[in-house]
Design brief:
1124 residues, single chain, 20 helices, 4-stranded antiparallel beta sheet, mainly beta, 5-stranded antiparallel beta sheet
């Protein structure tokens, strides 16, 4: 095979172009980087092969004809299946081998196993076979588990035919894949059996993967089916399986790279859906069951983003809301060394090329898709997910394979186990850089891949074992890494894995298939004060004896749990067909089983610590009824109102001018302001446009409809971009005038388009531009708030300034404007000198404090601590902050006296905890800005702490684009990956630079006492899913207590950072004492998943309406449905 084949294989890693010398081949071990270290007693014990009798090793021996240069999935490993093959009550194990024979082990009890592979009739693999996934399932419905094995590899179709071992019920199996029509010759990874058409028997979905080596070229999507690469759906027709993939709507092109498969009812309609995790550029597939024998692929509609190199996948309800969530693993490393030593992403141009061609927003991180139950009034999509992997703390687990949800400590919450490790670091930067030089020489000689020069490349690939991860579910959407403390800290090359209770003690054990090492059994060692458990075995209908697809729901006091029986989970593996519930210390009040055909059975006061068998024969003949739900607080009325306005963000690329910005600074709009501008008692509203788009004023009629007011003066200012707007009585004539604040990073500093504008109302909703009313204000404005700070009876204004355009993070001007009979005078120097041009202000509010009759000014901003400027009658001065470690990336602020003590308190919107980076007082997120290379422009050095050292966020290639000297100072990636930020530019240089620091990214509550901010405390995790761009405080459920409505996202981040799109809007109900409980979306009725910027209340003839603006999107309206 010529060098061209090698070039094609290397195209993926050379897509991330780099230049350097290869490093020495090293093999080292490492343990996971934990986000918090907790000293806990070990809960798992690794059992040796001598103890268990399991001597299986999935050894892959490279040679001239079989290696990763010839088969890109050479190191992807094998799987494991768990199940009771002889119905003796003990779980047996099956391991697949790539270049070695598969092995079947019979459980003898006491963690002793016997290799029965030969006697059972498991065929030797031979030299021309490559086995991948395995599932134990009763294919012929005789009550005994059979074994289905997938095969792949660069072999002929005859040697790739999948295997089906039919249980003979006497300890032996017969291979009958061809007889059943399941000897598929594709490049198969894994199969899942399920009753997709609810006809009672089990059908099969088969995942295959592509063999065409990805060349880095972004291909347009194709509909042409490939018989070996495309995924397939086989229908069970009386024991013979028929390929119905095409008519069922299953994608089967040559661009499919399926590696992971899970099946479950994601939208809870009683029909099972399918999720396929795809490697490389092809997006994952989410097939929603149409209930008519077909599926609709819906990943774009259901998710905002997904993993890029999708590998293993699992589906389970990890937050106990009775809706299944989805975890997909990728290959992002948690430690900064491996992040920089290995390739970490694609270029911005390539990223957008993928998006534009329909491959979705994909990022090289694990994804944890939280299922968001939607209100009935949301008809736009059948299911919705929010990726909260970063908030959950499970986004980076290195080159990972098998994610498995299971309750490992029986506390009632499912934990997450993840295997990882690749036999060779094929994406090591120094190795890739060395390949460039090798290729030139090899091309000149037309070297064949099996010649010594090509084999030398294999020997140069670095190798590093990585420990697997176990994350303990904290019950608040977050997980804590407990790998080391729970006895799972050993570094391995692990692939497929399964869980099972191997000794029937009520605690789940772990089984792992390792590459080039013994398979591992981890025995779960319960503590002395054991938590309770309940295990459910199912005796299903005659055509589905194990009840595959059935759901079991248990209720305990105020909590509930749901499991669905589907053995295929994780990566190339299947778990035992038994449902396991951890109960903690609470009894089971009731249990309900929903069989695949919809029949139900309910039990009450179920005894704990038992294995309970439930029979289909005991189910009622009445299908499950729709669950009664309360009326949501809000009902969306966007379509009924049909407002003719769609915000169109201007096409400006901030990163082209400042390529190291963390996110765009040119998308603060649309502005929104609400008031009764024509005196009819109904609220009207103004919405601002982006650059090149005029704002619009909508007048409300008595019928609840809105009409746009034409020929208004802001049309002449459509070159400006409206970032904020307020209605207030500027000229004391008892009507509402309009101030529009303009701001965007797309302009030049002091550009005329940055000038703010005041429009005066004639009382009937007709406005004119008060051209001379404002002083020159050509700064990047973000917010405005009106209040009588000087106590003279008229409304003054504060306008917050952000950054000088093109000069991030240099602060632009803020203005305090004193009202003098409708003309405004800049008094910032005398009244507010501390805020003139010192902070990157994003929002502000005038508030009441008990120490003064005059209003104080509360201000938030980027890299800023929320600050209260108290009014002494002649100036506004910042008060001391008891918590000086509260600097953040604050976006929004609102005020309310929720505890009715006479003083306002604050709700503060931050960037949230689902962002790529984190910040804390102990490990702040840092920025140093200066002209480090003396070329006349400001350079940005962002940094984060790990193990007490400050490191740059940038990889070597991006860093030397900004600072060319870096490439000369660090001649290879290894040295750069080890360097702290001070080693890159020097300690003295950093000390002289302008320094910014963020200590928290949490959206928070703040109390005011004695005219000072007394306490800042984070909101619950449900409020931390994304950036909070706006907040409203109101009594939405009319119980006499103030509640919180918040919303926002941040879509336009730099492309190596997952965009913040997990926010859907949140209603939090208050109890009058400063505590707020998040309300699920289905109960609140508020679903605003766009790039939300502003929220506002509208009074209408039928009650209150919530108005929502989206950047580069439509307006949304919600009617408050609560009436009392």
């Amino acid at each position: 095979m010529p060098t061209q084949r090698l070039c094609q294989w290397l195209a993926l890693i050379l897509l991330f172009a780099c230049e350097s010398q290869p490093t020495e081949n090293k093999e080292v071990s490492t343990t996971p980087v934990t986000k918090s270290v907790v000293k806990e007693s070990p809960k798992f014990k690794k059992l040796t092969s001598e103890q268990t009798g399991i001597y299986f090793i999935n050894e892959v021996a490279e040679n001239r004809f079989r290696n990763i240069l010839l088969y890109q999935y050479f190191y992807n490993g094998g799987g494991v299946a768990a199940g009771d093959i002889d119905n003796d009550g003990k779980t047996d194990l099956f391991f697949t081998g790539n270049m070695v024979s598969n092995k079947l082990y019979r459980n003898l009890g006491g963690f002793q196993f016997e290799d029965v592979s030969i006697s059972a009739g498991i065929l030797p693999s031979g030299s021309n076979s490559w086995c991948t996934g395995v599932v134990m399932v009763d294919v012929n419905a005789d009550g005994w588990l059979d074994i289905y094995v997938s095969r792949s590899g660069n072999f002929t179709p005859e040697n790739r035919q999948n295997l089906l071992y039919i249980n003979q019920r006497n300890g032996t199996f017969q291979e009958k894949a061809k007889e059943y029509g399941l000897n598929d010759p594709g490049y198969s990874i894994q199969a899942a059996f399920f009753d997709y058409d609810r006809d009672g028997d089990l059908d099969i979905f088969l995942v295959n993967h592509g063999m065409e080596t990805y060349t880095g070229r972004v291909l347009s999507k194709s509909d042409q089916r490939d018989p070996y690469v495309g995924d397939k759906l086989y229908r069970n027709d009386g024991g013979k399986f028929t390929d119905i993939s095409n008519q069922a709507g299953i994608i089967g092109t040559q661009h499919s790279y399926g590696l992971g498969l899970t099946v479950g009812d994601v939208n809870q309609d009683g029909w099972d859906d399918i999720y396929v995790a795809n490697d490389f550029y092809e997006h994952d597939y989410l097939y929603l069951n149409n209930q008519d024998g077909t599926f609709t692929e819906s990943i774009h509609q259901a998710t905002g983003q997904i993993s890029f190199f999708g590998m293993g996948v699992d589906m389970a309800d990890f937050n106990n809301d009775l809706w299944p969530d989805i975890a997909v693993v990728d290959m992002a490393a948690p430690d900064q060394y491996r992040q920089k030593a290995n390739l970490a992403g694609i270029s911005e141009a390539k990223f957008w090329d993928f998006v534009d061609k329909g491959y979705h927003f994909q990022y090289m991180y694990n994804s944890l898709q939280l299922n968001v139950p939607l209100p009935a009034s949301t008809n736009s999509k059948p299911v919705a997910f929010s990726n909260i992997a970063r908030l959950a703390g499970v986004d980076e687990t290195d080159w990972s394979w098998a994610p498995l949800f299971a309750d490992m400590d029986n506390d009632g919450w499912q934990d997450l186990f993840i295997t990882n490790g690749l036999r060779k670091d094929v994406l090591n930067n120094d190795f890739v850089a060395g390949i460039n030089q090798e290729l030139e020489a090899m091309n000149a000689r037309f070297v064949d891949l099996n010649e010594p020069a090509a084999q030398l490349l294999l020997s140069q690939m670095p190798s590093q074992k990585i420990a697997n991860y176990l994350y303990h579910n904290q019950g608040d959407l977050a997980f804590k890494s407990v790998s080391e403390s729970w006895g799972l800290g050993e570094a391995t090359f692990s692939n497929g894995a399964a869980y099972a209770d191997l000794n029937n003690d009520g605690y789940l054990d772990l089984i792992v298939n390792n590459l080039d090492d013994f398979a591992t059994i981890y025995r779960n060692q319960p503590p002395s004060n054991r938590s309770h458990y309940l295990r459910i075995k199912l005796r299903g209908a005659s055509s589905n004896p194990f009840g595959i697809g059935a759901k079991v729901i248990i209720h305990q006091a105020s909590t509930s749990q749901m499991r669905q029986l589907q053995p295929t989970r994780g990566y190339q593996s299947s778990v035992e067909p038994i449902l396991h519930f951890g109960l903690g210390d609470k009894p089971v009040d009731s249990l309900q089983i929903i069989w695949p055909d919809g029949l139900i059975q309910t039990l009450v006061q179920v005894e704990a610590n038992q294995t309970l068998t439930l029979s289909y024969q005991d189910a009622t003949s009445v299908p499950i009824a729709s669950k009664a739900t309360s009326i949501p607080l809000f009902e969306e009325i966007t379509e009924q109102v049909n407002l003719p306005f769609h915000h169109k963000e201007s096409d400006f690329d901030d990163f082209d001018r400042e390529f190291l910005l963390p996110h765009k600074l040119s998308d603060f709009g649309p502005a929104l302001a609400v008031a009764d501008v024509n005196g009819d008692g109904l609220d009207d509203f103004f919405v601002g446009g982006a650059s090149g788009q005029s704002g619009a004023l909508f007048l409300q009629s008595a019928s609840g409809s809105f009409t746009q007011k034409r020929n208004q003066p802001w049309r002449q200012h459509n070159a400006s971009e409206a970032a904020d707007a307020i209605f207030f009585d500027a000229d004391n004539d008892q009507d509402m005038d309009l101030l529009v604040v303009n701001g965007s990073n797309e302009y030049a500093a002091s550009d005329e388009s940055l000038q703010d504008h005041l429009y005066l109302n004639d009382g009937s909703g007709n406005f004119r531009w008060a051209e001379q009313a404002l002083p020159p204000m050509r700064s990047f404005g973000t917010c405005a708030t009106a209040g009588d700070f000087d106590g003279d009876g008229d409304q003054d204004v504060f306008v917050g300034g952000y950054v000088i355009p093109g000069k991030y993070p240099a602060a632009d001007r803020s203005y305090l404007l004193e009202n003098s009979q409708g003309t405004f005078r800049d008094v910032t120097d005398t009244w507010l000198p501390d805020l003139k041009q010192n902070e990157l202000v994003t929002d502000a509010q005038w508030i009441k404090v008990e120490t003064s009759e005059l209003p104080a000014l509360a201000v938030v901003g980027a890299w800023m601590t929320p600050t209260l400027f108290v009014n002494d009658g002649s100036s506004l001065r910042p008060t001391d902050h008891p918590d000086s470690k509260a600097s953040g990336w604050w976006f929004s602020i609102t005020t309310a006296d929720w505890n009715q003590d006479g003083a306002d308190d604050l709700v503060l919107g931050n960037i949230g905890l689902n962002y790529r980076y984190s910040a804390s007082p102990q490990s702040p997120f840092e920025l140093y800005a200066d002209d480090f290379d003396a070329n006349g422009s400001t350079d940005l050095l962002f940094g984060y702490y790990q193990n007490g050292k400050l490191y740059s966020v940038e990889e070597r290639d991006r860093m030397y684009q900004q600072l060319p000297a870096v490439k000369k100072k660090f001649t290879d990636y290894d040295s750069y990956a080890q360097a702290a930020l001070t080693e890159i530019v020097g300690q003295n240089v950093l000390q002289e630079a302008k320094h910014f620091s963020a200590q928290t990214f949490s959206s928070s509550l703040a109390s005011i006492q004695g005219g000072k901010v007394a306490e800042i405390r984070p909101l619950p995790n449900e409020a931390q899913l994304s950036a909070v761009r706006d907040i409203i405080v109101a009594d939405v459920n009319q119980d006499g207590h103030l509640d919180i409505i918040l919303a926002g996202n941040l879509h336009n981040v730099e492309t190596r950072t997952p965009r913040l799109d997990a926010g859907n809007g949140l209603v939090m109900l208050g109890n009058g004492q400063g505590n707020f409980d998040p309300l699920p979306t289905a109960e609140s009725g508020l679903y605003v998943p766009g790039d939300v910027r502003k929220l506002a209340w509208l009074r209408s003839s039928s009650g209150h309406i919530l108005l929502v603006t989206n950047n580069n999107g439509p307006l949304q309206l919600f009617r408050l449905a609560v009436t009392q």
